[in-house]
């Protein structure tokens, strides 16, 4: 089977010659070693062998957002300002929004040797900020999805893999507006206000999801945001209120047009597996093993493996820290538990990827071991 055929058969629940293997974000196509941007960590030579390995040996899954064109005017355009400057080699960005008598401010920092953006100040700090944000003019849905990015990715991939549409849920739009501790307090103590915020986000996200699913049928989607309401952050009853109620319409839109909705949820999922399954999704990632998670892959396979393709279940930290002889045991366990008994399918995949400028020799050997062990099956 080609790598694309193997992935698509897995999504459909059909037999495959062996499990697919993915390095998650690392695909050797989106990472450009030749890009001179000082914030491009992949320009370091240590990344070159891993990028080549991903490009030539793994089932490539390119994540793509879908923008909209010819949409209505942005009601916040005249109230919002962005400022960016460099400070001690880092890129500092400040967002301000005039909201009635308040000025809402968010600050972030991007360091050149780390492939992530840190939020150093969150936009909403208290109930007053949330109320002010809710009183702002609400964006309205409209316009048409632009499928060109997904189609270009598929053309570039050929038989090496698939494109995956990446979308955030209403919770993913609202929760990061707060510092994590403040978010949990707000979600626990101000449910009416919090639902108003989720409804505001859902009004756009649900319409856009339906339009994208119709324009690009039959694709894999990654639906991001559920982990904000997972234990220990919030109790399972609020997972239902803040995730299931808002994610289910998205899953239904995606699968109405033949797509495959994969719920992305880090952390402890044992007590919310039933809630995740109730959305009707047909995929789940990254299914982290203990101690980061609280359930082994075999349990997830038994519980909902017939409904969902399982993507995981290797810790990103293991890639960087475990001696290869120990990491090999983790791979063997994941392959065994992900394929034993009846199930829709399994893709061997880490929970994330290293995000430092220099990729260690150990991490490279562990990536190589993933491919080696899958190809031996």
Outline the structure in words.
This protein has 377 residues and is an alpha/beta fold. The protein has 2 domains: 3-71 and 139-375, TIM Barrel; 73-130. 40% of the residues lie in helices and 20% in strands. The chain contains 13 helices and 14 strands. The chain has helices at residues 3-12, 48-57, 127-134, 148-157, 170-174, 180-189, 191-215, 236-256, 273-278, 297-304, 316-321, 324-339, 361-375, and strands spanning 20-21, 60-64, 68-69, 80-87, 90-99, 102-110, 117-121, 144-145, 161-168, 220-224, 260-264, 283-285, 309-314, 345-350. An 8-stranded parallel beta sheet has the order 1-14-13-12-11-10-9-2, sandwiched between helices. The protein has a 4-stranded antiparallel beta sheet with strand order 4-5-6-7. β12 (283-285), α10 and β13 (309-314) form a beta-alpha-beta unit. α12 packs parallel to α13 (361-375). The longest helix is centred in the middle third of the chain and has 25 residues, at 191-215. The protein is globular, with a radius of gyration of 21 Å. The model has no long low-confidence stretch (mean pLDDT 97).
């Amino acid at each position: 089977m080609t790598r694309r055929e193997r992935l698509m058969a897995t999504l459909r629940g059909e037999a495959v010659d062996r499990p697919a293997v993915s390095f998650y974000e690392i695909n050797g196509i989106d990472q450009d070693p030749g890009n001179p941007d000082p914030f491009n960590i992949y320009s370091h030579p240590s990344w070159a062998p891993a990028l080549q390995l991903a490009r030539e040996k793994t089932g490539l899954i390119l994540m793509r957002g879908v923008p909209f064109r010819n949409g209505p005017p942005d009601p916040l355009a005249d109230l919002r300002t962005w400022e960016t400057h460099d400070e001690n080699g880092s890129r500092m960005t400040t967002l301000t929004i005039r909201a009635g008598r308040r000025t809402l401010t968010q600050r972030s920092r991007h360091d050149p040797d780390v492939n992530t953006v840190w939020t150093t100040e969150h936009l909403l700090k208290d109930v007053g900020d949330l109320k002010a944000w809710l009183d702002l003019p609400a964006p309205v849905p409209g316009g048409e999805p632009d499928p060109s990015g997904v189609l270009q990715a598929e053309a570039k991939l050929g038989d090496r893999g698939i494109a995956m549409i990446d979308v955030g849920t209403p919770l993913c739009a609202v929760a990061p507006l707060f510092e994590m501790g403040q978010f949990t307090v707000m979600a626990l103590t101000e449910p009416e206000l919090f639902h108003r915020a989720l409804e505001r986000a859902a009004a756009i996200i649900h319409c856009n999801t339906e339009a994208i699913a119709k324009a690009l049928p039959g694709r894999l989607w990654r639906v991001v945001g559920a982990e904000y309401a997972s234990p220990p952050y919030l109790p399972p009853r609020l997972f239902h209120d803040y995730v299931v109620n808002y994610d289910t319409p998205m899953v239904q839109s995606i699968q109405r047009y033949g797509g495959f909705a994969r719920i992305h949820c880090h952390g402890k999922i044992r007590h919310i597996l039933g809630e995740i399954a109730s959305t009707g999704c047909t995929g789940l990632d990254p299914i982290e093993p203990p101690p980061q998670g609280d359930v082994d892959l075999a349990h997830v396979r038994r519980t909902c493996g017939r409904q969902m393709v399982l993507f995981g279940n290797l810790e990103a930290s293991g890639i960087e820290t475990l001696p290869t002889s120990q990491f090999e045991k983790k791979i063997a366990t994941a392959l065994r538990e992900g394929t034993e008994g009846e199930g829709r399918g399994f893709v061997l995949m880490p929970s994330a990827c290293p995000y430092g400028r220099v990729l260690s020799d150990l991490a490279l050997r562990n990536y190589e071991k993933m491919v080696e062990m899958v190809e031996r099956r």
